[in-house]
Each structure stands twice: as structure tokens, then as C-alpha cells.
Amino acid sequence: MSGRARVRARGMARSPSAAEAGRTSAPPLPPSVDIGNNEASSTGGFVGTSRMSQKCKYSLSSGNARCTFIERGGKIRRDFMDLAVCIREKLAHVRDCKRGSSGVPVKLVTNLFRLDLPQDWRLYQYHVAYAPDLESRRLRIALLYSHRELSNKAKAFDGVILFLSQKLEQKVTELSGETPRGETVKITVTLTRELPASSPVCTQVFNIIFRKILKKLAMYQIGRNFYKPSEPVEIPRHKLSLWPGFAISVSQFESSLLFTADVSYKILRNETVLEFMTSIHQETDISCFTQTCEKQLLGLIVLTRYNNKTYRIDDIDWSVKPTHTFQKRDGTEITYVDYYKQQYDITLSDLNQPVLVSLLKSKRNDNTEARVAHLIPELCFLTGLTRQATSDFQLMKAVAEETRLSPLGRQQCLARLADDIQRNKDARFELETWGLHFGCQMSLTGRVLPSEKILMQDHVCQPVSAAEWSKDMRNCKILSARSLTKWLIVCSHRDENVTEDFLHCLRRVGSAMGFNVDYPKIIKVQENPAAFLSVLQKHVDPHVQLVMCILPSNQKSYYDCIKKYLSSVWPVPSQCVLARTLTRQGIMMSTATKIAMQMACKLGGELWAVEIPLKSLMVVGIDVCKDEFSKGMVVVGFVASINPGITRWFSRCILQRTTTDVADCLKVFMTGALNRWYKQNHALPARIIVYRDGVGDGQLKTLIEYEVPQLLSSVTEASSNTSTKLSVIVVRKKCLLRFFTELNRSVQNPPLGTVVDSEATRPEWYDFYLISQTASRGTVTPTHYNVIYDDNGLKPDHMQRLTFKLCHVYYNWPGLISIPAPCQYAHKLTFLVAQSIHKEPSLELANSLFYL
Amino acid sequence: MEENKEIADLGYGDATLLWMLKYHRCVECLVGVDIAAQPFEWGGGRLSPGVGGFIIPRELDLTITLYRGSVVQKDSRLRGFDLITCIELIEHLDSEDLAKFPEVVFGYFSPGMVVISTPNSEFNPLFPASTFRNPDHRFEWDRKQFQTWALDVGKLYSYSVEFTGVGDPPAGAEHVGYCTQIGVFQKNIAKATGSSISEPEEHVYEVVSILREAATRVYRTSYPSLQQRKYFRFTLSIEAVKAIDLMKSRFLRGLRKKEGDRVVPLGSCTPQHGLTEAQRAEIEQSPKPYSVGENFYVPLERLIIYPKVNHLVAGNVEKLRTVLAEGLRLNQDQTAVRVELVDYNTQRLFDEHLVSPALES
After folding, report:
1. pLDDT digits (tens, 9 = 90+) for B181-226
2. Which compartments does it reside in (chain A) (predicted)?
3. CATH code (residue A133)
4. Residue A822 in 3-state DSSP?
């Protein structure tokens, strides 16, 4: 199948309506189509409004209160959809107050800014009709804007709906205009409704206004964020530049309308796709060149230098060359070489390069053919980082050094942005005409939760720092461990000596922590993945408890083939160690300790615990992650605690199509976990709390409508006599919000265990923020918790403290982590499956943390 | 086109012509004047440098400025351009403005070249409606009318005129000529410098006395370019790193031997792509890259042969040295660029088995 045919095939799979496209054999889209008619959209279209879709028109006429404004590219801003999901009103115990009480109050500075409006502020929404009707949006706008009635007013207009902050004199205003072709057009502007500032529609209009303002501050919109290209951070030795900028949002918080801004960096690579391909060509065997190119490039976002648009590479068509012709919109044929010379004065240097193929998103969901764009690799720049780049430690370090801003650095950027907004003449004018006042940065009061004790086998320790207690744990015995008597080590001939040294160390630290490690069988092999695999096939028998592989390099194929074999074909816990980490002398002991702990867990051991006041509580973590290879597949991970001490876990994982409901398998998993709990404890848990991670914007409603019922039905079926109570909490690691504590006129990250449950939260939700991790460098991101279902009726304070406790029991790290341990386990599991195994791991491993 | 550095478009409308012109490498200054220019209504989106403009800076500076104003008002900021274009403009001028137009554009602005296009009324019968093509048109000339006007103007201000057009008539109607007729006016330099008497002098006289700024500026943007130090430095560093990376990967994959504290390649480390035979030969003659410990060194003398690097510094090693010293690391005697010698795939430093197995036996 040719590249083009493949793209069509994919296009068809995605939308059945595009099925015709393949057969009618649409000519490859001339690049001009994207250059001529919507070039301006690359920088956000005309200034004035964002686009609204046709849908908008209908939802309006039907009087739908949630008019959906459509963002650039025709996407609904999905985070706004989530805000419309009112959860709190259904939860009686938090309807009046969702605040906790324990802990020490702490004053926090936020990255929120007040936006003040006059008391009686209203947004006036008008419908604008043209007779005769005009197709061109540009023309519609030009005609309307030329009228004096509107010229000095604050306005946002998309060609159909007009928003004004001042009411027009009449409910229906008749205007007329003349097109360049001399046609007289009657324009009827009709008031459709008046909206209070708290209306979701207003929120979206405010977002449009601020996007406009940031553009006026000489920032460029890339994706959803705004960047300043004039002040780049340049890292020439890695061929990168970083553009500083902001992610912004305006929305209704607990008690008021607030503007949020967080510093963001855009990574731009000063490398064309052609140059990238050339380097692949040099480094790989010619026989797998095309394959490697596709593996590295497909799915990446490229930026075309001539028209500043971004495209996703969906395919590479090796049969098309720049000397081939395509059909321009006027029907004439031209070669790519001539086209770029004539249109952009660009001379292509390599006439043998293939073309990149990008499927264009159809703006409307109608039955139009899926269109593709052909792009010349030499003119396309890579954005973001390739996998090759992310595995480059030096590069990532360089990027992190620049982007990991300290709280103070971040605070200074915010202050500058606020200052720019207030000082810039155009920005101020825009705000004033809308009646908006940009206020000061907001402070609020949070609480620091009391610290937790860590329970070991015969010792209770109060860590010096909850961030990391490995030192406090030294010489303490772990809760329980099975001894390791029959196991294997596979290593390359070259790594034999380091392996022996390491083994010695491992056995010593093992016995100190109460984990008995016997001497294994060591097998030496050639340095290639196939050799490792064949050894496993030969030597792993049913008596082997664990296999350790000392990997000669971090080539992914070693890890992948070992994990694949030992997780699904022949299920045995496995431990991979990179030989290079064992050569670093100074840290041998701590490496061995860490690996010994992981191995103990993989054999079903328990390391430590925290006090759990609830006597019969099961906690569950769910995460969803995309499969790396097969597009359209997602991996769902489910990890549930199976003892009251929350030290033992039951882990399940499945691959499924994205098109099926978010997590279809939850009922099966939940029932499995309940059975396991019953076997262990001879009763069902009294309470279940589910932490759900991996939720995208706009999925909240789906979660409530599909996932919660699945979990509930499993629980009610299992507990016909007793009544097991369920709560579901959505966990989000990414949020725009930041908190700082002020200290000596500087700002710092807040202390561990800081909870925020007022002002920065949402009125519609039962939500809170918790900071449970330290950021040694950079600014800490709070984790957002949103309780979407709650039968348990725990007090908010208890819910917060329980969540904090659960952040202590992730066995891969002797310290606090940013999310509850079950979520992190589920994440680790899905990541392993999505990246390496691509198959469901064997059920035999479900009772151990084999994926650590 | 190649020599036009400063171009003004009178009556730029939706700025399509300006947008097309901005891609030409030789252009350094673009000016648009339109009576109906709207500030911020379209934000200059098409005319701003865009993200790509920052990643690949232009070779030459470019500023784009838009003014709101009449094309028949004298404005000193438009004087002495290389080219002024008036696309479908003159037919919108009333007789009074049309009378002033030559004096302002040819006499006062006095550019090297003027391109004027206007509808050819002989073509109109081929359209369904037989009136003017746009109700705002004050007149539509046939070829004779336009050419007479143009030749008179040319004679008066010493421009030579050539006529052309766009929009071929359909078969059978060839006699009507192009849909749109175009006059290309070339300033007659010999005449202007030789005996500069009569009309133009008065105008020049008038200008010197006052600086006229009749139009209001509504938009201005400057493009990043290699003329600006920071963009030049970054672009050169990037091109050098690209060349070095290619050499490094060949070095790591080829055979090597030890020479004192240096490890040198047995091959030449010349990339397979993007070079002519001559360039390849020249590279092979130049000093080879080498490694010492965990560092890889590329002599500047080799680096400068790479076409893109060479083009940027115009073959000047001294310039290459000074600029790279700011963005990258050089060796002690400043003759070579130093980078880390790590391989992506294994992350192992190659000093572990620097001497290739083939050479040990």
C-alpha cells in the first residue's frame, strides 16, 4: 500500500464518512489551499473574536443555556464543559461547607488575579443576519464593524453572534452595507439575551478578550498558550530554543471571577525534518531506514516555516518527490519545487526527499472528504521532543535547567505579565471598554496537615522529612518479605564482574532489611536482545521466583523483549538493571537498597505502612494511558488494596479501543478485587474509595455517567446483605494553579501537606488541592482532587487526610509522592504495558507489584 | 524584482500583495497605504513574522509599515522607493485626485519603478453585466485611454512605459486584450541626472523645506534577521552543531585509532548527503575531527567548508571563531569546537572501547 493509500485507510477508520475519500481518489491537497485561504488562522484569525461554530447558531435558537463557543480549530474548550457538571449540589454533607479543619493555617500567594466588574454588568448577545446572506466571514465582519454605532464599542463577533458590553438603543437594529461588488446588504442585529457576569458564556467571552490582550503584548499563540519569540532561551548545542510564555484562563472560582496565568515554555527545534532524516540515514542501516523514519516521525507535530502552521505527520509518501506536480486550486499543475520558488522565494536543495502527509481535520463534521496536505521535509521544523531526544540525558538536563523556574522566578514572571497588562495602552483600552478591571494577585489561607508516622516491622518512625525517609529507615526491617531462594541473573560477559560486586551488596542490604536473598544462578550471554531472550526461554522454569537481567545498554529492545516474555508468555517477576548504574561506585549501596526493596515487592512483600483509622477500607487507583504503538488503543490499569493495612495490592490491566467507553472493564476488575478481598479478610470492605487518574478535559460527565455506575453495580452485586459504600475521586496532576508561601520578601514552595479547599476551588464541585511532594528545584504543582461520587460521607477533613496518608505508601520511593499510591501503581502498570508489553499481563502476577 | 529593496503598495486593500512580497529575500522595506486602513481589525496577522520567521530568520532586515492616508497626499516617508505598485487603484480616484496622482506618485515619491494596473473596459462586454465592474469605479478605460494617459505621465516625469496585462481573453475575442491592463513605468535615470530642469525640480524644492507626514501609521513590524547579532549567532551555532553532529555520528560508527592522547578516525567522517563532489573533496583535505577523553573536537577549518556555515560567515574563519566562542565551547587554542562525545543509543561513553575490535587483532 502506498503512503497515501495508507493515510486514506487511516482516515477511513477514523470517520466512516470519509470512506468515500479513498475511492474517489482526491488529488493530494495542494499546499496552496492551506496557504491562501486560512493563513491568518495560524495566528488566531482576525482579532476580535474567536470562532464559533454553526452548532452555536442552533443551540442558541433553541435557547440552550450552555451555548458552546468553539475554540480555534473548531474544538470546544473541554475544561469549560467540566465546569458545567454540578456535583456538589447532590452531595448533602458538603453542600454548605467542604472545608477541612485539621492542620496549621498557612498564608499562600496564588497565581490568580482578581477581575472586577461593575455590579450591574451585563453581556448583551445579538444575532446578526445578512440579507442577502453572505458566505465570507471576513466580509460579514467588515460590513458590521464599519458602522459608527459599533465602532467604539467593545465587541466580539464571529460572523453570526455579536457580544456587546453596552446595549444598543433598539432591540432590533437595522443597518445596511455595501459589498465590494456593490451589492447592498441589509444587516439585522437582534438582541437575543442579556447575560450576568456569572454566566458560562461570559466566561468564554472573557477568555477571548484575554487572548486578544496577550496578542497585543506581542505574544504568539501556539496551541492554547501564548509565547514571546522575541526573548528566547537558546540552547544551540542541542539545536533547541525555548520560548517563554503563559498558559492563561479566566473562569469562575469559588467566590469570584479570576484570571489564572502560569509560566509555560515552548520547545522549538531548529532542525528540519529533512535534517533529522539525514541523521537517521547516517546512523541506521539502509534496509530499515524508511521504517526508522516512520517510527520516529509519525505522530510528531511539525511547523512549516513559510505559513507558520502546525501539522501532524500522519504518513510519509516515499513515492512523491519535490519534482512531481500537484494541482493548484485554479486547476493548473505545478511542481513542488516551482511552487515554493514562485510563492515563497524558497529554493529546495534536495530533490529526492519524500513528502510528509498530514490528514487535515475537517472543520465541520459533515460528509466532506478527508483531505490531506503534502509537506516538504526541508520546510518543516520539528516541535517538541522526539523519543530520541527525551532519552538524551544531557539535553533534558539543559531543558530542565531553563524551564524549571523557582517559585521566585515564576512570581517575577507573573508580576511582569500583570504589569504589562496594566500598562499596555491597547490592553488597557480593551479592558476598559469591556468594563473589566484587572486586579491584584490573590492570597488565601491553606492548612498544613499534620505529618504521618511510618510503620515498620518493629519500629515506628517519624521521618525527619516526609519528602524522603530512606535514612530514617536504615537498619529497620520491612513489614514482610518472602525469601528469595531460587532465582536467575542474566548478564553479558563484559558485565560479569560488576554483577558479582552488586550481588554481594544486594545480599547484604537484603539481610539488613529482613529480606533473605540466596545466591542465584548467573548466566552469561552475548550482548544482544535475542541472546537474552533465548536464555530466558531455556532457563526459566516454574520454580524460578525471579529473574534479574543486567542490561548492557538502555536500548529499549532489551527491556521490552524481557518484560514482554516474563509478563505475559511466562509470568515470573523480573528485575532489569542497567549495567551502567552498577559501575557508579559511590552509590552502590543505595542502588542495592532500592533494588532489594523493589524485588521484595515483586515477590509480594510489604515494605511499610501508615496508620489507617478506617478499619475496613479498600482503596483503588485507576489510570488510563495511550498505547505507544497501536493508535486508538488505550491501556486501563486498576490497582486495589486487599488488606486493611493497605500494604498489599491486586493489579489488573487491559488494552481496549478508545472508541469503547472510557473504562469498560471496571466492573470486572472491581468484582475481581472484591473477591480477592473476601478471600483475604472473609468479609467485604465496608468502604471503597476510588482514585481515578488519567482523566482528560471534558470527560467528567462521561465518568459520572458510565464509570461510576459500573463500579456501583459491581459493589451492590457483591454486597447484597452488607452495604459497602463507595466514593470516587478524580485526581489531576496537571493544573494551572500554583501556590507560594511568602518568606522574607521572597516566595517559596508551600510546606508538604498543604491543603487548599477554599477560594481557588470551584463552586460546583467538592474539590481540594493537596501538595504532597517536594520539588527540589522548580515550583511544585499542586494535585487537584475532585470528589465526584461520595456514599461514604466522610467529613472533608477526613477525606483530605486519608488522601494525604495514601501519598506515603508508594513502595518505589521512600517518601511522599504527588498522588495517592494506588494511582501511582496504576500509572506504573499502564506505562509498562503501553510502552513495552502491549499485551495484557498474566493474571498470575496480579497479586504482586510485578511492574515496579 | 531582485533589486527592489523598498516597495510601497498604494491602496493595499486586504494586504495580499504585501503578503506575497514579504517572502522575497531582497525586500527590506514594505509600506502599504490605504485610505480605509483599519487598525487592529485583522492585527496584521498575515504580515507579522510568525513563528517560522523566528526559527529561520531572514537574511536581510524587513520592516512592514501600514499607513492610513490618501495616495494623493505627499508624504516624505514614501520618497525614493525602488518600486511603487498601484493595483486596481486609479479607477477609484475622482477626476480631481486623478489629476494630482501623477504629480504625487511620479513627481514627488519618484520611485525607480511604478506598476499601475486598471481594468480594460474593452473586456467588459464579455461579462454578463455591462456596467462598471465595481460601483465605486469612477471610470474604466480602454487600452487607448490608459496608454495615452500613461505615456503622457511618463513623458512628463521622464519614465519609460511598457504595457502588459493579465487575464487572457477567451478564444474568438482576442481583439479585446487582457482583462486587466498594466503599465510598467521605469524611471529614465540618464535623463533625470543629465538635464534635470523643468517640473521635477520644483517638487524637490518643495520637499526639502518641510518633512511631510500626511498618513497615520496603523501597523508596524520588524522581522528578525541575520543582520541582527543575536539571530546571527544562534543561526550560525545551530548550523555548526548540525555539521558537527553529522561528523560525530560518522566518527562513532567508523573505525578509529589512537594517536597520542587523541583518537582519530580512519575514515574522513564526510557526510553522505547534501554535498557536491568538490565540497566533499575539500572536506576530506581539511583537518580531521578527533576525540580526547569524553570530548569530540571539530577543527574550525573543517567546519567552515560545510556550505551553510561557509555561506553564513562568507568563508571567514576569524568570524566563525569569534561568533562560535559566544554560543558554543572551543578548545584552548580556539581552533576547534568542543562537544560531548556521547551516543544516544547506548549512553555509553565511547572511551570504553575506543579502539575498534577490528584493529586489536
Report:
1. 999 999 987 544 444 444 443 333 333 334 556 777 778 888 999 9
2. Cytoplasm
3. 3.30.70
4. helix
Q: How far apart are CA A130 and CA A162, in angstroms?
A: 13
- Contact at 8 Å (CB) between A649 and A642? yes
Q: Are A474 and A463 in contact (CB under 8 A)?
A: no
Residue A395 to residues A231, A236, B122, B341: CA-CA distances in angstroms?
A: 20, 11, 67, 13
| Contact: B50, A182; criterion CB under 8 Å | no
Tell me the shortest Cα–Cα distance from A688 to chain B, in angstroms.
45
Contact in structure between A437 and A119 (CB atoms under 8 Å):
no
Preferred mutation among A179, A183, A282, A583 to probe B, highest tally of B CBs within 10 A: A282
Min CA distance, A109 vs chain B (Å)?
34
**Domain ranges (residues) in chain B:** 3-221, 228-354
In the stretch 618-647 of chain A, residues with CB closer than 8 A to chain B read none
Is the ipTM higher than 0.85? The answer is no
Cβ-defined contact of B242 to A275 (cutoff 8 Å): yes
Q: Could you tell me if B203 and B107 are in contact, meaning their C-beta atoms sit under 8 angstroms apart?
A: yes
Any domain includes A460: no
Grid cell 523480573 is found at A574
Does the residue A500 lie in any domain?
yes
Asked whether the beta carbons of residue B250 and residue A388 sit closer than 8 angstroms, the reply is no
The pLDDT, as a whole number, for residue A370 is 67
Longest dimension (CA), chain B: 95
Q: Which domain holds residue A128?
A: 122-196
Residue A348, all three cell numbers = 529546495
Contact with chain B for residue A324, Cβ under 8 A: no
CB contact residues (below 8 A), chain A span 350-379, against chain B: 350
Residue B230, helix vs strand vs coil: helix
**Nearest-CA residue of chain A relative to B219?**
A216
Q: B215 to chain A nearest CA, in Å?
A: 20
Superfamily of domain B3-221: Vaccinia Virus protein VP39 (3.40.50.150)
Q: Give the containing element (helix H, strand E) for A496.
A: helix A496-512
C-beta of residue A502 within 8 angstroms of C-beta of residue A522: no
Question: How far apart, in whole angstroms, are the C-alpha atoms of residue B330 and residue B334?
Answer: 5
> Is A588 part of a structural domain of the chain?
yes
* Residue A730, all three cell numbers: 478524580
Query: How many angstroms separate the CA atoms of B5 and B26, rounded?
Result: 6
- What is the mean pLDDT for each group of 10 consecutive residues in chain A (852 residues)? 43 34 33 29 30 30 32 50 86 92 94 91 91 80 78 80 88 81 83 88 89 87 86 87 92 91 89 88 81 86 83 90 86 90 87 90 56 89 77 80 89 93 88 90 94 90 87 87 94 91 93 93 91 92 93 84 92 91 82 92 94 94 84 88 95 82 79 94 94 88 90 87 89 92 89 94 94 87 95 94 95 92 95 90 91 90
From edge to edge, which strands make up the β-sheet containing A184-196? A155-157, A161-164, A122-131, A184-196, A172-178
Mean pLDDT across chain B: 81
Helix or strand run (H / E) with residue A636: strand A633-641
Residues of chain B found within 8 Å of residue A241, distances taken between Cβ atoms: 55, 234
Q: CB B246 to CB A391 under 8 A? A: no
CA distances from B246 to A290, B249, B250 (A): 19, 5, 6
Looking at residue A367, what is its pLDDT?
52
Q: What pLDDT score does A48 carry?
A: 30
For residue A339, what is the DSSP state?
H
Q: CB of A239 within 8 Å of any CB in chain B?
A: yes
Smallest CA–CA distance, residue A280 to chain B, in Å, is: 10
Domain boundary among A171, A196, A221: A196
Residue A785 covered by a domain: no
Average pLDDT rounded to a whole number, residues B221-249: 90
